[in-house]
Design goal:
This protein is of the alpha+beta class. It has helices at 6-23, 60-65, 75-82, 91-98, 134-139, 143-151, 153-156, 177-184, 191-196, 198-206; strands spanning 28-31, 39-48, 102-112, 117-126, 157-161, 168-172. It has a six-stranded antiparallel β-sheet.
């Protein structure tokens, strides 16, 4: 078993943020580090939809610069209004995005006091602003994990109240996290190194289930 105290969770998250800044990944810190349980990590990603396999939009700058208030509007109007905020401007990317619908995913990494591990909460909505249903989320699970999720969907991926925001969010259940991370721990030379690598290792196992993949850069740091 490999659990974390809340203080170790903070250390692991801040180290993860330090690394993400090196690669220009758009994770952010939210909440208050001085209040137990009030801190979490945040990221948004945008996925094209309407094809057999959704693909994350290729422009990292696009993800970083779309204003959150615009996301609720129609896709074409949305992007036409925020073109001026894109740096550098790439007409080919904007033209391709405008012609397609997209789904926004918002990921949160929150500490779970019951299981003493990080937990992935997320929400997803269409470009119209309509939230995806739990059934749609199950259907969008990566094909490599879909059989496992469908066989145990109520114990693995469900909708629940966000512990900090008090709103419905989807959740990857943390009940197996400590056990899986415990299998990794003996392979890492020290406990401090294990903590500093915890979020990267954990996300590499759980993130791909819901479209959250880490760049290979994270494993060459």
């Amino acid at each position: 078993m490999a659990t974390l105290t809340y203080e170790e969770f903070l250390t692991a998250c801040l180290e993860f943020i330090r690394i993400t800044q090196k690669f220009g990944d758009n994770w952010e810190t939210k909440g208050n580090t001085q209040e137990d349980g009030a801190f979490y990590l945040y990221k948004r990603m945008y996925f094209e939809c309407g094809s057999e396999k959704d693909m994350a939009l290729s422009s990292q700058k696009l993800s970083e610069n779309i204003n959150s208030e615009m996301i609720q509007k129609d896709a074409e109007e949305d992007f036409m209004q925020c073109i001026e905020h894109l740096e550098p401007y790439d007409p080919s990317v904007v033209k391709e995005v405008i012609s397609k619908k997209y789904i926004t995913y918002e990921y949160h990494i929150v500490y779970n006091f019951g299981h003493l591990v990080p937990t992935l909460y997320f929400n997803a909505w269409h470009s119209s602003g309509k939230l995806l249903t739990l059934e749609e989320i199950w259907e969008r699970v990566h094909f490599q994990f879909s059989k496992q999720i469908w066989e145990n969907k109520w114990e693995s991926l469900t909708q629940t109240e966000h512990p900090l925001l008090g709103r419905p969010f989807f959740q990857l259940h943390p009940c197996h996290t400590a056990k899986l991370m415990g299998q990794l721990k003996p392979k890492i030379s020290s406990n401090s190194k294990f903590i500093s690598q915890y979020i990267i290792s954990w996300l590499s196992m759980f993130g791909p289930v819901i479209g959250l993949k880490l760049s290979l850069d994270y494993f060459t740091d």
